């Protein structure tokens, strides 16, 4: 296997860190990360694909090793626009997209903006069906329905090392939780623990309520375009239980669906299984 390359590029004047692996001229798999992660979440997947595919994983502004400029829009609109500008900066003409967590929102909006450039989608615990939201959404929804200073304080309390640990270990049974490296939350917290970066993440959590009106539009995109799609889903997910995966078949019945006995972060607990599914899928759509 070749080494993962660690690079920086200026996107709209923002110093942006990204990881890249695989042949420079290979078919591209774009890896937008979720909360509270960074491109580090894909550190094991990328070398497992690098014999045939070029994988590209940016750190979004305010996450990982990228800059956190005061003037950036720390909203889902802002991050979605940033991802579009990132792929244009790297001159990525076509790509498959890995849709996970918040990265699923950014990636789907990218796909909707230019459907002709999308070779396929890999959906891994990224939800667009509100009726299938799990119980872990309850505190967020209380804030969505009644935004308040107290609600902001509750969100701020979750932007902590303990809060990050809960995001990564989640509802996993103990034997599976033991597979999740502490490096995930400790690294995420180490690069986030400044007043400015914490405030940016609190703002993004508050902004999440604005993703729900996008769900019908994203469902329409799937229904009308039917891109080749692989769904690999961890059932132990308090935000997005198994029903959230099956719901995709309402709008994209041809999507290939696999339910695994993991949680929200399958690449930590079921890497071998996910790699096998992804390789077989990519070999079909981007040989």
From TrEMBL:
**Uppermost EC category:** hydrolase
Keywords in alphabetical order: Hydrolase
Q: Which GO terms describe its molecular function?
A: epoxide hydrolase activity; haloalkane dehalogenase activity
- Name the EC number(s): 3.8.1.5
Q: Where is the AB hydrolase-1 domain?
A: 27-270
Q: Which InterPro entries match?
A: AB_hydrolase_1, AB_hydrolase_fold, Epox_hydrolase-like, Haloalkane_dehalogenase
What is the superkingdom listed in this entry's lineage?
Bacteria
Q: Which Gene3D superfamilies match?
A: alpha/beta hydrolase
Q: What is this protein called?
A: Haloalkane dehalogenase
């Amino acid at each position: 296997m070749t080494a993962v390359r660690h690079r920086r590029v200026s996107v709209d004047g923002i110093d942006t860190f990204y990881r890249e692996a695989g042949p420079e001229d290979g078919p591209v798999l774009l890896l937008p990360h979720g909360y509270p992660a960074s491109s580090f979440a894909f550190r094991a997947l990328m070398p497992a694909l690098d014999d045939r595919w070029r994988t590209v994983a940016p750190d979004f502004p305010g996450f990982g090793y990228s800059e956190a400029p005061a003037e950036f829009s720390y909203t889902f609109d802002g991050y979605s626009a940033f991802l579009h500008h990132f792929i244009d900066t790297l001159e990525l003409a076509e790509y498959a997209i890995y849709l996970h967590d918040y990265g699923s929102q950014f990636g789907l909006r990218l796909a909707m903006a230019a459907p002709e450039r999308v070779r396929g989608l890999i959906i891994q615990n990224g939800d667009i069906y509100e009726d299938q939201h799990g119980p872990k959404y309850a505190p967020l929804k209380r804030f969505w329905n009644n935004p308040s200073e107290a609600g902001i304080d509750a969100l701020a309390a979750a932007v902590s090392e303990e809060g990050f640990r809960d995001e990564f270990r989640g509802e996993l049974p103990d034997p599976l939780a033991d597979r999740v490296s502490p490096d995930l939350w400790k690294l995420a917290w180490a690069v986030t623990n400044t007043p400015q970066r914490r405030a940016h993440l609190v703002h993004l959590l508050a902004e999440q309520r604005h993703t729900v009106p996008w769900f019908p539009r994203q469902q329409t995109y799937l229904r009308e375009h039917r891109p080749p799609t692989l769904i690999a889903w961890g059932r132990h997910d308090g935000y997005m239980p198994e029903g959230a995966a099956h719901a995709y078949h309402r709008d994209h019945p041809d999507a290939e669906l696999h339910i695994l006995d993991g949680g929200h972060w399958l690449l930590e607990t079921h890497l071998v299984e996910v790699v096998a599914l992804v390789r077989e899928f990519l070999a079909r759509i981007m040989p």
